[in-house]
Protein: Prolyl 4-hydroxylase
Amino acid sequence: MYNSIQFLETLLDELKKGKFPNSHVTPTTLSRIIAAAYNRYDMPGKSVEILKECTKAEPGNKRLHNDYDYFKTRAASISKLENVTAFDKAEAEDNMTRDYENLCRGSLKSPKELSRLFCYYKATDDPFYFVKTELANLQPRIFLFHDIISDDEIGFLRNISEKQLSRSTTMTKQGMIGSEDRISHTAWLSDLDFLELKKLTLRIKLITGLETAFKTRYSNTEQYQILNYGVGGMYKPHVDPLSERSMFPAECRGSGDRIATIMFYLSHVMYGGATVFPNIKTRIPVQKGSAAFWYNLELNGDIDQRMLHAGCPVLVGSKWVSNKWIRERGQMFKRPCGLKKKSKERRL
Ligand SMILES: O=C(O)CCC(=O)C(=O)O
Ligand SMILES: [Fe+2]
Structure:
């Protein structure tokens, strides 16, 4: 629902800028629709905010003024509640930031929680290939696969990407821009250009059990994203799915969203640089040759906010990682959706 309001608000912005000169929908009509949507979700304060400007511009519009008065009365009656909600949100944000910062300094799991985590050799479809697997978190599962990329492969990835590195960007409403939220350099490498990458992608398929073929269209995965963080480099808390940041994710067309992330660690870091998940108090220190793997989407396709994560600032050293994002396309039999809307993963 919140996404649809965001959608309408963007449309309103565009309409006000005169982007649709032939539209029969006026900004006031659209503002009334948005105001009604906010009101429906018990946020009449927002409805008042939206309509205020219109009422000044159209003093004679009776329906508009009726709506405005109604929302004002309602906002006055539940404003306390709204304030509490806003307050709760701010507090949750503060708690998340505190956990993020503390996790960057060290583990926040209790000895009891840590004692439940374990390691095992994970069997794959190849009867001779067992993967050293560590559970970094139980529910939701975060896996750490050890020794799954060799030093030679790491050298290869770093060498070819070094020439292509450029300032990392993040996706915003304004497009892809460099931002304070992400200080690093990025390169993209295609499976189609290097046999070594094709082989690595097949390994991901074996290890994760997901479809991983890379194609230019209707692909199961994205290209390899190589990241290099210098001292002070970091990536603030975020979730990986594209639909979180972009309202019209053309990138999701055909291949779906980023159902899972596998992130290879291509270097050691002396201090700092851990990958942390503040909502589930999980911390993964950088370990060359290992890879972290987790699902970003729930079984019903919703973004799993528990998987919010960050790359902690590098204090000493240089950190290299590589992401390979696995898309929803082709995974319907590999990771079937649940029978109920709220079905949770039972076993992985
Ligand atoms: O560098 C890290 O540890 C996290 C990187 C990350 O989350 C990303 O690139 O999406
Ligand atoms: Fe990420």
